[in-house]
Backbone:
């Protein structure tokens, strides 16, 4: 046996399937949802309407989508046994680990195959409600009940903070949820589709997806951008700090993307959102660091196409709406639950197992054990 010629290396070199949900144009700074350029949707289109588009393929009859508002509102109440299990989680558990456990707890045996739209409503609604409940309990605060008069994003902020958020901050977080709702065959979505292709259930697929998203090379970097900005402190220190960090061979968080070889449209839109909600001094620092980082990276790699990615201004926006850095990646995951649901439904409709192959590069067939074999 002679191993075949190896396939091109890297996750971007293989087409793993077909989808009508979203398209990522890495060379052209595009992100398209069901044929709609996200720059035509964000900011302005309510979260429920963007979720409706992703789940049903067409815009709702009115904004915000009454179908999604009703479906998500009715699905917010989790089983008492699940709530009790969430309340038993240790307060010292990190929010990201807590959310992964919450998704697993949702799999109480009532989720089956094929996934249904109602399962998606449960995943989207209950994951945010239960996560907000845990965050408050971990902080020593009493949980706050959901408010039926609030939309999905506004209710998430309400349950986290215990006060109704400023409408401008709700709109900013809705823009973030809209932009992070889906992103083609990213690693966590790929893992979820593999799980669904084996006839597993949506709760299990989402748990596997979050286990993938929690890695810092996928969804774990926005908090590190915030830490980087804190370390730099003032715009005057940006250029020297960036230069010294790169000289040590360390990463500059919030720059570069495996898919985008041009500017990340989500980053551009979140920059606009940040201009409306961020503290002026924080925004000025972030913009100065972005310019310094871009200049230093270009100086070191003149032919490289490296730009700020979605995580850079994510940190600024999520800070501005009142979220602590440890909540950044869990909030990313909560935003992505609608995309995971859409992909689960699409994968189940296709109903074919996903079984990638590896190129074998070991010794050829024909080796013999170096010692005599024992008698059978």
Residues:
């Amino acid at each position: 046996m002679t191993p075949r010629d190896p396939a091109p290396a890297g996750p971007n070199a293989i087409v793993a399937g077909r989808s009508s949900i979203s398209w990522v144009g890495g060379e052209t700074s595009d992100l398209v949802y069901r044929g709609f350029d996200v720059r035509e949707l964000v900011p302005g289109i309510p979260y429920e309407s963007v979720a409706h588009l992703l789940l049903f393929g067409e815009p709702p009859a009115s904004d915000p989508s009454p179908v999604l508002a009703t479906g998500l509102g009715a699905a917010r109440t989790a089983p008492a046994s699940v709530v009790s299990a969430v309340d038993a989680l240790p307060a010292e558990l990190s929010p990201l680990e807590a959310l992964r456990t919450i998704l697993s707890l949702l799999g109480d045996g009532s989720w089956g195959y094929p996934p249904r739209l109602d399962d998606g409503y449960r995943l989207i609604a209950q994951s945010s409600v239960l996560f907000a409940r845990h965050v408050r309990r971990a902080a020593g605060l009493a949980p706050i009940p959901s408010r039926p008069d609030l939309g999905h994003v506004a209710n998430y902020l309400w349950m986290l903070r215990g006060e109704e958020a400023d409408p401008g901050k709700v709109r900013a977080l809705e823009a973030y949820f809209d932009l992070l709702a889906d992103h083609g065959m990213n690693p966590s979505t790929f893992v979820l589709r593999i799980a669904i292709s084996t006839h597993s259930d949506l709760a299990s697929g989402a748990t596997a997806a979050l286990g993938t998203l929690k890695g810092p090379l996928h969804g774990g970097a926005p908090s590190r951008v915030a830490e980087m900005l804190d370390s730099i402190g003032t715009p005057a220190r940006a250029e020297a700090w960036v230069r010294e960090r790169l000289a040590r061979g360390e990463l500059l968080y919030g720059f570069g993307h495996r898919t985008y070889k041009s500017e990340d449209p989500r980053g551009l839109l979140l920059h606009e959102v940040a201009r409306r909600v961020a503290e002026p001094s924080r925004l000025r620092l972030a913009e100065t660091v972005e310019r310094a980082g871009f200049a230093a990276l270009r100086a070191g790699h003149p032919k490289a196409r490296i730009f700020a990615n979605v995580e850079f201004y994510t940190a600024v926006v999520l800070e501005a709406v009142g979220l602590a850095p440890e909540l950044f990646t869990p909030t990313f995951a909560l935003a992505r639950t609608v995309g995971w649901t859409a992909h689960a439904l699409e994968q189940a409709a296709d109903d074919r197992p996903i079984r990638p192959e590896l190129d074998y590069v070991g010794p050829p067939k024909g080796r013999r054990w170096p010692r005599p074999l024992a008698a059978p």
Remarks:
- The chain has two domains: 37-165+174-214+327-350, 222-320.
